[in-house]
TrEMBL record:
It comes from the Eukaryota. This is HAT C-terminal dimerisation domain-containing protein. Residues 257-276 are annotated as: Disordered. Residues 257-273 have a biased composition (Low complexity). Residues 313-365 form the HAT C-terminal dimerisation domain.
Length: 374
């Protein structure tokens, strides 16, 4: 592993691009998918106008917040909780919605396994215990919100995840939520299911028509066209991939032909004669069909045979499309983790640290697992 300064790389590359009349461009700015899902799970859920659901949600979370506050208020209360349950509660925080789900899920597990001990704990701490109706609400809430939590965990990863994971994750999430609409065991949280579906449609529906996101997904061998259900959508996606393939292949052919023409101009003896060029142009109508057939074969071979990223190198144009549209991450969580690590390094005793020194320490901190393997 080698450390490079990003400024030097960009400066060196910019000189080459100016000579080739090219411009360096950043990927399209997109909103963090995890932030949008957190808004769906938190802000949009609070807007539900179903009276029964709203009443149950407010009373349940009020009781849960009281027991969490008791745990955080003193070590004596924490000792009491450990004595009754053998462990502490998982407590939520305001920065990540996942923490709220994990806290509620932990409480539901304790309700199932240690119900009596939990009742004694509430009595000793002089708190109102959960009613049977509220217990049923919590159980349904955990079941309904589990696909949301799983989707967030997938998208906010910083390894082995690219922009191509976004649309399949949302597709599976909508399918799982749709299955709850016909589930007879979900009675108190049907308003929650409908709210989640409406909010996901409002915040993410335009992404399914974004060609760049579609290409990012199609060129991922893990998904390809499997996330699409309708035949017309599958054909449209396949034609989109073929058009992008032809575009990049045409650019590559133009670059190679320009190189060949420059080589030919340097030598008067090289290159085909005018008669041969006329023959080549005469038969271009049928040779072009053969080239298009090879293009279709390569796209079809990728869709039918490629099943892992390791095999993507056998399809260089498809690999180029994959790298182009999967360069960004669907979430900004990894960047936030980087800022958090930077805050730990830039402490009060290191205020005079230079920028280069800070970047090198942050680089070593983030990649410490790699260096341990050495």
């Amino acid at each position: 592993m080698v450390y490079f300064e990003i400024g030097e790389i960009l400066n060196d590359h910019s000189g080459d691009t100016l000579l080739r009349n090219e411009n360096l461009t950043l990927p399209v700015h997109r909103r963090c998918a995890c932030h949008l899902l957190s808004l769906v799970s938190k802000t949009d859920v609070q807007k539900i106008q179903d009276y029964l659901f709203e009443q149950l949600r407010s009373t349940v979370f009020e009781k849960l917040q009281k027991i969490w506050n008791k745990q955080n208020s003193s070590s004596l209360n924490s000792d009491i909780i450990v004595r009754h349950l053998g462990k502490l509660f998982v407590v939520r925080n305001e920065t990540r919605w996942n923490s709220e789900y994990n806290a509620v899920s932990c409480f539901v597990r304790l309700l199932k396994k240690k119900n009596r001990a939990l009742k004694k704990l509430f009595e000793e701490l002089k708190l109102d215990f959960i009613t049977p109706n509220e217990e049923q609400f919590l159980k349904e809430y955990v079941v309904v919100m589990k696909p949301m939590c799983d989707s967030l965990d997938i998208l906010q990863a910083d390894k082995h995840v690219g922009m191509g994971y976004l649309l399949p994750t949302l597709t599976v999430l909508r399918k799982k939520l749709m299955s709850f609409t016909d589930d007879t065991s979900i009675t108190l949280c049907q308003a929650l299911v409908n709210s989640l579906l409406d909010a996901i449609h409002f915040r993410f529906d335009k992404m399914f028509t974004d060609n760049e996101l579609r290409l990012a997904t199609i060129t991922n061998p893990m998904f390809k066209l499997s996330w699409l259900e309708k035949d017309e959508d599958i054909e449209r996606a396949k034609s989109l991939l073929t058009c992008e393939y032809n575009r990049l292949k045409g650019i590559a052919q133009e670059a190679s032909s320009s190189d060949e023409s420059s080589d030919c101009s340097s030598s008067s003896l090289s290159g085909p004669s005018p008669i041969k060029r006329r023959k080549k142009n005469f038969f271009a109508s049928i040779t072009k069909k053969r080239r298009n057939k090879r293009c279709d074969d390569e796209v079809d071979n990728y869709l039918n045979l490629c099943d892992s990223l390791d095999k993507l190198c056998d399809y260089p144009i498809i690999q180029q499309i994959y790298k182009r549209y999967n360069v960004t991450l669907p979430s900004s969580a990894s960047v936030e983790r980087l800022f958090s690590q930077g805050g730990l390094i830039y402490s009060a005793r290191r205020m005079k640290m230079t920028d280069i020194h800070f970047e090198m320490l942050l680089f070593l901190k983030v990649n410490n697992k790699t260096f341990k393997d050495w």
